[in-house]
Give the backbone structure.
Amino acid sequence: MTIVGGRPVISPPTDWLVASDGAAIPYRVQGSGPALVMLHGWSQSGAMFQHQLDILSERFTVIVPDVRGHGEAPDPERGYRMARLGRDLAELVDHLKLGRFNLLGWSMGASIAWAFIDLYGTSRIDRLILVDQPSMLLRLPDMSEAEVVQCGALFTPSQLCDLQAALRGRDGEAQRAGFLAGMVTKTIPQDLFDWILVENAKTPSNVAADLLISHCTNDWRDVLGRIDRPTLVIGGSVSHVDPRSQKYIHERIAGSRYHEFSAEEGGAHFPFLEAPKEFAKVVGGFLASGGG
């Protein structure tokens, strides 16, 4: 792993997938061994996983795509729905001829994993890792306070509409930068945070706005009970995502494991960047372990 000025040196895309609707999706492949597909979050990029690409590729074939319209992927001006992103994943693993694979989804990447499972089931997944994503982001009017905590819901319908409008406005990029400030620990190095902002800005604000509604209005709670593969749920003690919502996911998935990173371990929304070696150790240990 090469670090220059506190930032990881990013591997260029290995190749591109042309999806069935014509969208161009770049992906990186590194290493050998069992396949591990890693999915990044909303308005982010696969570059977020560069440390993990370098570390985990010593034991696994690590595959890191950029979600359509994110990172190095051009905006296809269509397909910004969770179901379509789930299909993109299916087409990528078919393209790579992966019979079975391990799957890690962080933030919206976990929602893409749930969309894939909802559409195609779990038969091709060996092990599943879910990192810091609520099972329902929208706070519905009839939800009890207990449900809000369990879901990790962050927005009321009016707040979500206001946010989408703000992203479409001329200060959309500043809006996203403000979000990011609340997603990292207070001790993150400034140059690393600045780099996250640069990667974040690669996603056009209109793309982020288009995807936001689908991302936030899917309720994945009924999918959790259908997950029958060995699963690790990862939360952060100081994340903007309430760790109680991650424990709820863990409780809903039979036989799953739960790991929570502390504040000292980079336990906000980006543990793979703030504590890359520790994160890789947890993920690698789970993937290499036997049983459920």
Remarks:
- The two ends are 31 Å apart (CA to CA).
- The mean pLDDT is 94.
